[in-house]
Each structure stands twice: as structure tokens, then as C-alpha cells.
Amino acid sequence: MTEQRSGLSRRSFLATGGAIGGAALAGCLTGGGGSGGEETVTLGIIEDRSGNFALNGTPKYNASMLAIEELNEEGGILGNEIETFAPDPQSDNQRYQQLTRQAINEENVDALWAGYSSATRETIRPIIDQNEQLYFYTTQYEGGVCDSYTFCMGATARQQLGSVLPYMVENFGSDIYTIAADYNFGQLSADWVRVLADENDANVIGEEFIPLSVTDFGSTINNIQEADPDFVMALLVGANHTSFWNQRTSAGLDVPMGTSTVMAQGYQHKRLDPPAMANVYGGFNYMEEIPTDRNQEFVERYYEKFPDAAYINEEAVNNYFSIKMYARAAEAVGSTNQADIIEELETGMDVSAPEGDISLQGPVHHMTHNMRVFRCDENHNITVEDEQLIPEQFLSETVGCNLRENEETTQYVPADYYEEADATQE
Amino acid sequence: MGLGDTFDRLRRPFEGPNTLGNSRAFWVGFLVVLAGLVGYPIGFGSYAASSAALYLLYAILALSLTVIWGYTGILSFGQVVFFGVAGYSFALISMNLESALATTLALPVAVGLATLAALVLGYFMFYGEVRDVYVTILTLVVALVLNTFMAQTAGSEWTVGSVALGGFNGIPAIPSLTFGVGEAAVTLDGSAFYWFTLAALVASYLGLRALVNGRFGYTMVATREDEDRTEMLGYDVRRVKLLVFALGGALAGLSGVLYATWGNYISPSVFGITFASIPVVWVAVGGRRSLLGAIVATVVIEWFRQQLSATGSQYALIIVGVVLLAAILFVPEGVVPRLDAALTDVRDRFATNADTPEGTPE
Amino acid sequence: MNALNLVFQFADNFAFVVLAAVGLAVIFGMMGVINLGHGEFIMIGAYGTTLSANAGAPLPVAMAVGVLVTAVMGFVLERTIIHRLYDRLFDSMVATWALGLILTQGMRILFGNSIPQVSTPLGNIAYGEFSYSTYRVLLLPVALLVLGGLYVVFTRTEFGIRARATIQDPDTARALGVDTDRMYTATFVIGSALAGLTGALYAPTLTVVPGMGSSFLVEAFVAVVVGGPSVLLGTTLSGGLLGTIDAVFTNLFGTFYGQIAMLLTAIVVIRVLSNGLTGLVESVRNRVEGE
Fold first, then answer.
1. Where are its TM segments located (chain C) (predicted)?
2. Hey, is the C-beta of B332 within 8 angstroms of any chain C C-beta?
3. Which of C221, C238, C259, C273 to mutate to test the interface with B (most CBs of B within 10 A)?
4. Domain A158-287+419-425 class?
5. N or C: lower Cβ tally within 10 Å for chain B?
6. What is the ipTM of this complex?
7. For residue C39, which of C196, C267, C237, C186 has the smallest C-alpha distance?
8. pLDDT tens column, B122-150
């Protein structure tokens, strides 16, 4: 059970397989003399299954249940069957606050997975921090959260855009037009597009922020045509914005489009009639179409448990591997003591996830993800165009966040570190 | 007998034909329930108290609508406007000035701003001859304007002082309710916040009872029943409506400040159509001409919605919808007035030595 | 800025405002019921259309199914619930709000979070460097046809005259032998069918999900209140005014300003003209006739 605090030696765990790891850990357990076997393990899974975010939240809920079922079949955590507290927050942030408090104070959850949107995360993070609750946020997001109790399992905007934007510049040219959802996430993502454009010798020739309530894209399409870019970065979010794809196809707008927010989250390529998503390129850590054997086995297991499920989105897989990762950490520590588990996770961990072999960057609580560029063709078939491991860089290199050394609950933004990200300076 | 007389004298200002519960029995029951509510945190702990505080602060929002809609006949969908204005104001003031004194003063200032907003909007409507259902839709549109506007304030240019409005994400880390100066300040969390909210609710309730059973209350009810006739009798109906609207704005503002400090958070969703509809639901179900009805319905409905959500059932929202529908169809006058009528009925039938209710409930 | 862009965007916006509002306007203007579930009625129309199209029906047939389904639903709801609430305006708002809740979540349970979408037919109109979806532009004449059809129904048919008589003075109408109950039912069914038609028309160009109704609500309410008491004239005029303002401001300053300008216009119109645009037209007409 000795854990080297150097952080250089990382434990290697198999999150998807498990027999070997499980046996080894059983040894650990007896050696550690933990109190396992007596205490119960409760995981809080607060994901939307109704309301606006149900489309994104339901796969997250499903994948969590799959991970927990698989763990329980292998004997649970520390020999205990895992129990869950899994309410439906109905896409309502007020309710998220109430349920988070209930999870912590009444249900005494040992770890919490909750929320799709950044707004939700920011709503409940003060409650998480106040109660020093171990929390996993699994959505791909704008990045920059450096929080002692929060582990961000999704890829950040810099990782997502950092995989697809250079590919687009290389293949289509250097003039970029950005359309982004007009809220925190969209604004920060657009900032990252500017930073990455600068790093790749491209330029943003137009930028448009679209309120989340907008469903009519006639003028936006005209604006793009007028600017005549080499490609569009479409950072659209939510059901209303999904209308863009049918409308741009119908209007005959056939510029290639890059994205970090479409297909892998809301599986538009499955829902819309071809060729609405033709020539859309996404930078994601996961789509269920990844052709590796490991992933296809995972996909099979998922649909075996949920035959009527619609899709496995990026966030669902992040829930899945992080629940497995948590279980390994708890076994390693020999208890469900949250402070100990956080300390354990902060030493880093190699994880074998459906997307590939990835690793936890302990000091910043983020993942090095196996990022791929996915292309959707006119028949809505998905192909992988490019693949590389991309670590979280903003916190670890630019900001210098180190949660092993310092306690923090801050969210950093690119505008404070990059001139080109600061829209007010132009 | 002496004690009873004092008791009767004390309750007189709060009684009249415009409210339910004009008997000694009612007030004894009221005090018993109140004692129970005060003791709740002691029995169930600080977490339970802080959960319950949310329902109590919502009840103040419900009261703000009851006085406007139930007693004066103006259905406002805009109570959430004043609720949100006060919440945002409190956040901006307390977070910019960052001192205990500023946070203390932020409460009255935020409530004042909400009142001012209600005065401006009320003047605009009532002195512009906007009437009936058009008031309803106009207030709804104002809420939606604020919803749309606040949702797009994510950019760095949208900061007030040092505080970013935050757009759709809202403003996190709003300070808790604080009273005092510097070191001598007290911050209200958990049980203390619950007691403060309970006190504010009881004060609002009793204050409104006194108001609606007083001279001004009769003018309000007259305005509701027949605006033109009231005007002919020499009352300035527009002024009456404006004053009531401002009072409603102040109460909604108080509720909004409590809300922002309860979760240390506020976002544009408080101006959204869902949240704007909820107070109307509480008041309609509880009985819109009953202050007590609004409070009871708010607490019960919100508690019920939370329990359903916690079960994780996909039928939760359907059950909420069906229950509301049933309440509207089968208990049109509101659940609490219906219960009151039933109780009175029972009492009249069986009581041989009943204390005569001097003001029979409507 | 290209002039044709502006024209097409105006056509698009005008159609959206009119179609979003017309079902609500008929039910509100004729019956005084504010249908807070209006958006969900539209959603039902869109679901009916998309599901039938997915089952193999040609798009026009699928749209007819969408309209029919919504009309039938309107009939059932009117007979079971709404007709109990005619003299209780505000209660009907709560009831329809609850209905909206039930419909949204009910569709989610029945058909999941999303259903396969239909693509937009008819291609595009290209002009220079620009192009616009033909289908979206054609929604303008469709909206005008709907308004024209309603005009004929309510002014030129026996039914329309009876319906209007019922609205203006139910007691007298009843005394004259009009079955007012049937008139209310018929009006509600027409309003529902119009909401269904809106859903059917937008099914191929918007995202059909259980929560889609809310994206129509703002425009619908704003249009009704700006229009004023006369349903047809009011909806047409507010469609024109709001469509123009939205197109111009969106073009000049961006989508957000288009929305805000529209909402502010609504507030100003209500303040200045307590009877909406219809009231303005009538007072101008009276003045002209008076001279």
C-alpha cells in the first residue's frame, strides 16, 4: 500500500479489463489492513434524464450504471457492493444544488459524478468545496478549473480544438470563421480558437456569438458566405443550435466545418438525415464508432445492458472510465476516505479506457486524452483521420497549477494569459 | 378570562373578512405550528433546516403574488423579475465592496432596487392604461427580456465593478447573509439562516394580514371586484395598483436576496418561463385569495417536487403535471380555502359550544 | 449587406412570427384562454409529421398527419379539461402549463430524447456569393395563405359568423340558437390544428425534440400582445413589424440584438398602444372616417 509521493511512479491499472488488476489489488487490500468489508460504498450519480440536457445526460447515467454493475460483478469496491444515489435533476440547476447537498449530507456519498453543463458545475462547485467532497466532472469543457476536490475527466477546449484545428488549417487553409454559443463555454472556446489559430499561423476572419435560444440561422449563414472563410469552427451547443445543420445544408453552405461540440455529445450524425453533417470534422476523445477491438467490446456491453439506448457519447465514456478509476484508487488506499483517495489520485494513474491508453495528470486533476479527429461523410459514416495523445497544457504548463502543493478552487481563463484570447484588446 | 381577552385583543388587527382563520382556535393552531417550525432545526439538524429554508423563502415570493393577484386582481408573471433584480443587486453590491457592512447594507439596498423596479414597471403599465391579461403578458415579456439579456452577458465586457455577470452560468460564490460591521459581524448559515427566513416569512404574513384587513385592504379588494366603480367612488385606482405592485416587488425582492444567499448563486434561469410560471402555480393551487394557502401550497409543492426528483423516476414531471391539473379542476377555489370550509363545516355540525367565528371565511 | 439577404431574412422571420403566434392568437383572441402549452402543441405537430415521414409517408402526407394528430388532441383536451375552465382565465393558464409539462415528458418517455429527423426539402436559391434555403423562403407565402384562409373562415362562412357571435356575446348568441359549446370546441380545435401546422411546417428545418416547444413561446406571446385584440389583423401586423425589426437588427448588430430589439418593441407598443397594433389601425380608420 505504500505510495511513492514522487509522482514519477505511476500505477498502471486496467479500467476496462480487470481480472489481473483485481487479483493484485486483493493482495493490496489484505496487506493494507484497511477496514474494507464493513463500510458501504455509495456513489452519487446526478445526471439529467429529463429537461433540456436529457439527451446528453441519459448516456452518462447509463454508462455509470454499466461501470457500477461491472464493478459489482467483480466484487464491488473493497469487497462491498456499490450502492448508488441516482436522482434526476431535470436539467435544473436549482435542483442540482438541492440534490448535491442531499447527496453529501444525507446520503453521505463517497464520490460524486454530476452535471453536464459548465453552468451546473459552477453552481454546485461551491457546495462541493465547502464540504470537501470528491467530485468528478466528466463533460468536455472550456478548461481551467484548478480545484482541490474536482477531477475534470473530459477533454478541455484546448485539447479538443488542439486536435482538430491544426488538422483543418493543414487541409483547408488558414482563414477561420467562428460561430459559437453565446455563453461562458462558447466565449472561452472562441478564445481558444484565437489562441490556437495564432499558434498555427492561421487567422480568425470573423466571429459570431449566437444566443442559446436561437433556432434561425439564415443571417448567420449569409454572414459566413460573405466572409468566405476556408473553414468554419462551429462551437454550437444544445437542441436549438442543432437546427443549424439542416439549415446550412438546405442553404447550400458547403464550407468544411470543424467542431468540438457536435456529434460526440449530441450524436447529430445519428439523428439528422444525411447529408446534414457532411464534411464536419470533430476533435474528440471518444465517439462510439472508434474501430478498435477494445472499444467495440465496450460498445457491445453497453448495448447489451441498454438495448434501446441511442448513442454512447464522449461524456458517457468519461463517466465509465472515471468510476473504474475511482474504484482502483479506493482499492489502492484501502478505504473510501476521500482525502486519501484524492491524494492517491494526485500521484497520477494510467488508465486503459475505451478510447485507448490514457493517464491522469495528478497535480492538475485532468486527463491526458487520446484525441482523434473524426470526419463525418455525406452518408454520415464516421472515419478517424488523425490520432494523438494530448495532455492538459493550460493549467499544467501555462498557469502552473499544482494541486499536490497548493489547495485551490479557482477557474483560470485564457484571456489572462494570452493576448490574442483577450477580445477586449482588439 | 383576562388572558383570553389579551389574546383576543392582540389578534384583532390581523382578522377580518379578507383572510381565513379568524378564530381563537386558528391562532392557537398557528402558534403551535410556529413553535414546531422554530424547533425544526433542533430536531432535525442544520442540513434539514437549510433545505427547508428554500421552501420558506419561496413562500415569501408566493405571498408577493397573492397580494397582487389574489387581493388586487392583477396577475403578474413578473414577480421573478423583482426576485431576480434583487438577487443580482445583492450579488453585485456585496461582491464588489467585500465587507461585512456592505453585505449587511446590500439586503435593504437590493430590496429597495427591486421595489424601484416594480414602481417603474407599475407606473409604466397602470398609468399607461395597460389592463387585465395584457399586464400578465407584459410582465412575462419583461421577464423574458431579462432572461435573454442576462444569458448573453458571458463576455468579459459584461462586468459590473469587479464582478462578472457570467451570462448563462450566472454568478457563483455570492456571500451568505451577514449582519454587522467588521469583526462583530454575524454570517447566517444553516439553522440561523432558516430562522431568519422563517421570521421574515411570519412577519410578511402577519403584516399582509393586517394590511388586507385594514382600510387599504378594502380598497384593494374593491379594485379587484370592480375597477370602474371603485374609481367612481373617488379612489385613485391607478395609485392603489401601483402601491400594491411596489409592495409585491419589495416582497419578491426580499425573497430574491434570500434565494441568492441560500445557494450563494444566481443565474438568468430565475427570469426564464419555467421559473416565472411556478409562483402562479403555487398561488393558484393554494387558493389565490388566501395568504396562508399560498404559503402552504408553496412548501408542499416544492417539497413534493424535490422528493420526486430525488427518486430519479422519469414519471416525476408527469406526476407533478397531473397533480396540478387535478388541483385546478377539482379544487378551483384552492386547496387551503377548501380545507378551511370543510373544517368549518365539521365544526359547525359537531361543536355544541363553539366559539363563534366573528368573521366567517369567504 | 446584401438587399436580397435582408428580403429573405425578413420573409423567414415574418413567417416564423406569424406561424408561431397564429394558433395561440386564435385561442386567445376568440376564447380568452391563454394556452401556456401552446409550444407543446406545436411539438406534437412536429412529432406527428416526423414520425409519419420516418414510417415512409411522403412529406406532405406526413404534415397532414401532424396537423390531424394535433387537432384530435386539441379536441380531446377541450372536451375533458379546457371547457371546464372558460370562465377561469388564470386557472386555464395553470392547467395548460401543467399539460405542457405532461406532454413534454410524455413524449420523452414514449419516443426517447430524440427521434430521427427529416431533412429540409427543395434545395436553395443561389444569388452571387449567397444562397438561401428555398423552403424557408416559401414559408412566407404559406404563412400568408394561412392568414387568408382564416380570414375567409371567420368572415365568409356561417361557422365564422356564429363563432364571432359567440365570442362577442355568448348569451345573445345562445338565445339566437347558436350552440356556443360547439363553437368553443371548434375554435379550440382550429387553434390546435394551426399549432400542429406550425409544428409540421418546421419539423424539417428545426430540431424535433420534446423540449422544442419553448423556442416558439417568446415570439408567439410577443406577437399576440403586439397585435392586440383582432386576431388576424393583429397577427399579420405584428408579424410584419417584428419580422422587420428582427431582420434589420440581426443584420446590423447580430442575432442577440435582433431578439432584444423585438422584445423591447413589444414593451413599447404595449405601453403606447394599449390595444396593440390593431387598436392603432382602428383609431386611424375612425379618424379618417370621421373627417
1. 14-37, 57-77, 89-115, 135-154, 183-204, 216-237, 249-273
2. yes
3. C221
4. alpha beta
5. N
6. 0.84
7. C196
8. 998 888 777 777 888 888 888 888 888 88
